[in-house]
């Protein structure tokens, strides 16, 4: 039964209870309330301006007539004998009563249960009586208390009215059960350990308190959970698939890893992909309902990654920590690299121009065949055309008949004109945009763009937009599960990607890197119209002790400008400059290869010239006649005859 009284009328709420031998070991109610006041005076309990939730378990010795008020604030009294269920309900009440106190009397049947609370209790709790405090405070039912105190009363000493007890404590930051003091009926409360894990500035430093994080698997595979084994429901690590360091820093390090380091908590990740969703009438993505179900069952304290906080989420038994600012949803398109297929190349010239070009080409082919069979006039007809193009009419006249020269001249002139016209049209088609970049949803509809998104619920959100053009785009929206496919689609098709601005800028970086320099920052078109605004944040177990501190952290982060859209734009622009330099650097390879080829060709030419000169010199030596003296035999025959003319003959040497 529940009974509510205020101030001094609390004793009357208990009624008269007959004395029995069981009551002889029970501490009177007045003494137990005195212990609560001493706990408050020792700053172990906060000020009781909001009141006191009091659960009286069993029977208490009768009290004299009401005297002064037992508590200086409203008191909610709940009486029971089997108090496990009633006290559990008291711990889960949202009314600002503090603390939740269970006072044990004679015949009390209470022991903390093995089932954890569905969410954190918003207030501290005090247990007072003949309990095994060290074991009781470690029970799962008391695991989600921000602060739990337990005064374990000792038995009555023989031949004396003195009562003693030991005080134990367990807090969120310091999970171990510690004996922090003692109590005696004569000396009152004596506290020796005031540690709670809360610093003088309000900051919490835990002793490695586990923080169970529910991993939400969205349609996009941008966030991943690495399982030790496929059958395991936990994650050994989580990651973000991104090409922008700022995006990874904010989503993973700042919102998760740095938080664990800041509070000295131990992260434990639970994958919700295979868990059943929470049964509720609220229409939300199944991935979100799975995470909420895990939070409500006591299996997790926090969700990651952050998600859009729709109004329906606030109807669920969870606490929200938003980013403290509205994030606009816009879109981005990319000026695609101009590509011409065969049909576009044919459309550059009119059908009449193509017909004239074909007829003239056929006539020129016939002319060349005729020239080949004209004897001396058809010799080296290619030289005649070259001479004609070189305006060497006199030489060309020797190779080309006079009656053919007008036809050849017309063909050459027409080919030059058509080539120039074709190239100019081709350059225009490759450089001049055929339409203006879209700025609004209306432009997207008129230019036949198709929306892309990597979260499935975006289609549902946009389908209820008040803008008819946004609703039309939502009817044909395409959901892409792989982050790698989005840059490919933006570069290859007439598509626009829509998401919150930080995610849009992250996708822009992926597009510039994927294009290999063909799409630079100047080719990125950001829409001027916001399709909507929303709050982003994370879900926490209801009344978690870190919720208020995360709100303060979000306010400081917003004031620092760390998550502003301008920072994302600046980093995307920086990557655009790097992509441009990479595009220029990608030309160095072909240029270097061309230079090496030219050097090799020049070296080969020089070697060929040197070899040709050496070969010609050797051949010249071989072809020169040998210098032979025709009078050599005569000189050898007259060598032994004395002086010339001794035989009466004279030899005339020419």
UniProtKB/TrEMBL annotation:
Its main location: membrane. Keywords: Cell membrane, Glycoprotein, Membrane, Receptor, Transmembrane, Transmembrane helix. Residues 632-654 are annotated as: Disordered. It is a multi-pass membrane protein. The chain crosses the membrane at residues 352-371, 408-432, 590-612. One of its GO terms (cellular component) is plasma membrane. InterPro entries: Insect_Ionotropic_Sensory_Rcpt. This is Glutamate receptor ionotropic, delta-1. It comes from Amphibalanus amphitrite.
């Amino acid at each position: 039964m529940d009974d509510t009284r205020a101030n001094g009328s609390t004793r009357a709420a208990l009624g008269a209870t007959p004395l029995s031998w069981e009551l002889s070991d029970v501490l009177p109610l007045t003494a137990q309330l005195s212990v609560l006041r001493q706990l408050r005076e020792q700053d172990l309990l906060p000020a009781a301006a909001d009141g006191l939730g009091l659960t009286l378990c069993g029977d208490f010795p009768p009290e004299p007539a009401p005297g002064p008020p037992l508590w200086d604030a409203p008191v909610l009294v709940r009486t029971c004998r089997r108090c496990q269920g009633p006290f559990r309900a008291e711990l889960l009440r949202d009314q600002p009563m503090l603390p939740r106190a269970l006072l044990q009397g004679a015949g009390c049947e209470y022991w903390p249960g093995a089932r954890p609370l569905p969410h954190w209790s918003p207030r501290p709790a005090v247990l007072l009586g003949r309990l095994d405090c060290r074991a009781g405070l470690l029970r799962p039912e008391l695991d989600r208390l921000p602060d739990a105190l337990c005064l374990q009363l000792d038995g009555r000493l023989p031949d004396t009215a003195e009562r003693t007890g030991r005080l134990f404590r367990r807090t969120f930051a310091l999970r171990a059960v510690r004996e922090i003091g003692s109590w005696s009926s004569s000396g009152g409360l004596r506290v020796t350990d005031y540690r709670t894990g809360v610093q003088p500035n309000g900051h919490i430093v835990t002793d490695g308190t586990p923080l169970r994080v529910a991993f939400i698997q969205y349609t996009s595979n941008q966030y991943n959970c690495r399982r030790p084994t496929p059958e395991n429901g936990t994650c050994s690590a989580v990651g973000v698939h991104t090409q922008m360091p700022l995006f990874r820093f904010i989503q993973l390090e700042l919102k998760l890893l740095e938080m664990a380091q800041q509070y000295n908590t131990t992260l434990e990740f639970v994958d919700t992909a295979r868990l059943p969703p929470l049964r509720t009438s609220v229409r939300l993505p199944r991935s979100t309902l799975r995470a909420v179900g895990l939070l409500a069952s006591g299996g997790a304290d926090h969700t990651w990654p952050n998600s859009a906080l729709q109004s329906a989420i606030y109807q669920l038994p969870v606490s929200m920590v938003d980013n403290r600012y509205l994030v606009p949803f816009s879109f981005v398109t990319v000026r695609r690299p101009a590509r011409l297929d065969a049909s576009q190349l044919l459309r550059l010239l009119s059908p009449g121009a193509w017909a004239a070009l074909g007829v003239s080409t056929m006539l020129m082919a016939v002319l060349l065949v005729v020239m080949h069979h004209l004897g001396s006039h058809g010799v080296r007809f290619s030289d005649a055309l070259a001479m004609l193009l070189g305006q060497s009419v006199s030489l060309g006249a020797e190779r080309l008949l006079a009656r053919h020269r007008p036809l050849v001249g017309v063909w050459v002139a027409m080919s030059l004109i058509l080539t120039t016209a074709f190239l100019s049209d081709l350059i225009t088609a490759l450089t001049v945009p055929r339409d203006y970049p879209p700025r609004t949803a209306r432009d997207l509809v008129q230019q036949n763009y198709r929306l892309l998104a990597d979260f499935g619920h975006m289609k549902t959100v946009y389908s209820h937009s008040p803008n008819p053009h946004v609703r039309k785009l939502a009817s044909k929206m395409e959901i892409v599960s792989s982050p790698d496919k989005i840059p490919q689609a933006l570069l290859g098709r007439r598509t626009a990607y829509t998401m919150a601005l930080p995610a849009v800028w992250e996708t822009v970086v992926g597009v510039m890197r994927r294009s290999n320099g063909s799409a630079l920052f100047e080719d990125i078109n950001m829409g001027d119209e916001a399709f909507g605004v929303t709050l982003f944040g994370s879900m926490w177990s209801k009344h978690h002790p870190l919720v208020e501190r995360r709100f303060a952290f979000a306010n400081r982060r917003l004031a620092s400008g760390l998550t502003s859209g301008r920072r994302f734009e600046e980093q995307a622009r920086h990557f655009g400059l790097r992509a441009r330099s990479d595009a220029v650097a990608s030309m160095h390879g072909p240029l270097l290869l061309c230079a090496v080829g030219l050097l090799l060709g020049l070296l080969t030419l020089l070697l060929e010239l040197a070899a040709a000169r050496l070969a010609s010199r050797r051949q010249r030596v071989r072809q020169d006649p040998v210098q032979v003296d025709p009078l050599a035999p005569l000189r050898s025959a007259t060598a032994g005859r004395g002086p010339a003319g001794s035989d009466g003959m004279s030899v005339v040497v020419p």
